[in-house]
Prior knowledge:
CATH architecture of the largest domain: Up-down Bundle
Number of strands: 10
Structural class: alpha+beta
Number of helices: 12
Mean pLDDT: 93
Radius of gyration: 24 Å
Amino acid sequence: MHDHLLTEVERGVRDEARAFVREDVPRQLILDMDADRVRYPREYVERAAARRLLGLRFPPEYGGRGLGWRAEVVAIEEIGILGTSLGCLYSLPSIVGEAVHRFGTEEQKRRYLAPTIAGRLMTAEALTEPHGGSDFFGLKTEARREGDHFVLNGQKRFVVGAEGADYFLVYARTDPDAPPHKGISAFLVDRGPGVEVAHVYGLLGTRGGGTGRLVFRDARVPAENLVGRLNGGAEIFYRMMVPERLTSAAGAVGIARAALEVATRYAARRKAFGRTIREFEAVSFKLAESLTLLDAARGLLWSAAAADDTGQDPGLVRRLVSEAKKLCTETAWTVVNHAMQVLGGIGYTNVYPVERLLRDTRLIMIWTGTNEVMNLIIQHEWFKEKEREWAALAGLAGAAGAEASAEAGDRPPAGTAAPGPVRDIEADAEAAEAEDEKVYE
């Protein structure tokens, strides 16, 4: 880990998370979850809460520590070595808590956020629908107002924690006549009458988290459980992509680190042809590539976390978060596969945990937005940034004249001005002025 970049507080949080993973998570729990003998490990979440490791970013008055994303992703990396299920269950108070803290009422924070951080309430997010997948705004779940309640009907699938959560963050259509992104609202829905777990999925990996399909049949939700404004669900959804994807990225770094640790130890001990296999470049180069990818992914993750912590432009935050989710999850997949290759046939068995890590890792390139969707967001935000840059470059001459005649008092305060236009690199070609040769249509 890049310890030299961590503050004293962040190192302390990391050490606390390591102690939790080392001391409070029994090996048997991991095995039982992977065998589906445990469907929802409530005590695990309660133990994390007892160490004050949940909801690190939220204010102390709700049980958090008031820290930033940097500290939280460092903690999640440590939790991530346990696998995707335990990493996700650890992150859910942060994910759902984001919606409640940013958009919820004070009563909702007291009733839901604080008990969740304290480990008294378990939470889950109900986002995906059977027909939808990446088409979030095509959702069909509806919430109809009846007096002081909303009546909820519809289905959500792939809900981690469906089996064990006490309440759910649910998106539903509240204005069927509005454009898709303007007619959706978010609700806090308690488990109870009208809320049914219709199916618990058998999964390749990421087991033991109670992932299931929820069906809402005339579920009555108090109007005060509306999160944010009516028909304002899109705003919440867009913001929620930050915690969903940063936590996914951080957990992926943990998984990659776990696989690399196993492979490195094996390569240093296993002998073939009279030598340890670390002495063969076919093996050691895989470890070198894995370590380089892991360090690069962690660096991008921390940069994305810092961008949100410091209030950077939302478009830049979206791009960096999407890049981090894509790179970290794909790095985990590469590193885990390299680890299995280093171990050879024994890596394919349950003698080592690499086969479980591989099964877990396949999902993380799909959930919280597929990596294809990440590419879509990355290029979209990148072109928006470049268009602003090109516009600034085109107006450089006029801006220079205006700057020369401006009064000092009209200038923005030091440190607040936007970065100046970059050099027009295209003009540095010898025949750059041959405009007739620059054909674009």
